[in-house]
Amino acid sequence: MSGKADMLLLCQSSERRPQLPDRSVDLVVTDPPFADSVMYSELSDYFYVWLRQALADSHPREFRSPLVDDSREAVHNPGRARDADFYTAVLGAVFCECQRVLKTGGRLAFTFHHAGEVAWQSVEDALVEAGFVAVGYWPVFAEMESGTHLLGKAGAAGHLDIVFKCARFPDAAAPEAQEPIVEMGERLAKAGLRLVAADHRALLKARDVQRATWRRALGGHTRALREGEGSF
Ligand SMILES: C[S@@+](CC[C@H](N)C(=O)[O-])C[C@H]1O[C@@H](n2cnc3c(N)ncnc32)[C@H](O)[C@@H]1O
For ligand 1, is residue 74 a contact (CB within 6 Å)? Predict the structure, then answer.
């Protein structure tokens, strides 16, 4: 980036960002869709069709499609014939693009949460596909129970999002020392967070993703990690 501009707004799938040169970015911070948790494009269609009525004449290019173009939405939506593999593939392509633009030593940080099993596997596969390893993870308090898509469901869905910090393998030598998840859970509980089973599962899943990205990146060196040379 040069000149005075310090912000670039791009309305396109993050699978391709040709405006950004290779190895030009220090840090990618993102918040991808959580598989089948929220159907963003279907929800935005409702607003889009009304906006289109008012703005199509003045912005014909932006409103040429009768509905939101969701062809490359990273989503698992059986209603639109997009399965978990589709979600994994799009997320993997986005992470590959992050990999391309990150400088050596750069980091990818993103949030994730899911109450089920399959979506965590998608995240793991997408990271591995792009050559990332999870160097660290932290729980953060997610949306309030009064949020529209958690209303009445937080007991089952949990209260935690996980923030992952990832690095290009082998730029990072080893995972960062991580607070054991039992202690992490106890500390959160002491801070007044009423953890439910889904929260404990999210912490376990985060640890699984971290371990798996390293195991799969290191290939034949898994025994060394098991024997304690890694810092899991
Ligand atoms: C979890 S939400 C992010 C919400 C955001 N952090 C906020 O506070 O408004 C995920 C977003 O990713 C968008 N998205 C889905 N597929 C995408 C893709 N291929 N490229 C870029 N964004 C995508 C969704 O439309 C949705 O807006």
Answer: yes
Name the residue of 73, 77, 164 to mutate for ligand 1: max ligand atoms within 8 A of Cβ: 73
Residues 57 and 169 in one domain: no
Are residues 192 and 85 located together in one domain of the fold?
Answer: yes
Residue 33: name the closest of 75, 70, 69 by CA. 75
Query: How long a stretch of residues is the chain?
Result: 232
Tell me: do 55 and 109 sit in the same domain.
Answer: no
Question: Does residue 4 lie within any of the structural domains?
Answer: no
Q: Which domain holds residue 51?
A: 40-74
Residue 32 CA to ligand 1 centre (angstroms): 5
Answer yes or no: is the C-beta of 92 below 6 A from any ligand 1 atom. no
Residue 34 CA: nearest ligand 1 atom is 1
CA of residue 79 relative to chain centroid, distance = 22
Over residues 53-100, the pLDDT tens digits come to 999 999 999 899 999 999 999 999 999 999 999 999 999 999 999 999
Contact between residue 207 and residue 137 where contact means Cβ atoms under 8 Å apart: yes
DSSP code of residue 82: B
Tell me the whole-structure pTM to 2 decimals. 0.89
Q: Which atom of ligand 1 is nearest to the CA of 13?
A: 20
pLDDT digits (tens, 9 = 90+) for 105-152: 999 999 999 988 899 999 999 999 999 999 999 999 886 555 555 555
Identify the three-state secondary structure at position 37.
Answer: coil
Q: Are residues 206 and 92 in the same domain?
A: yes
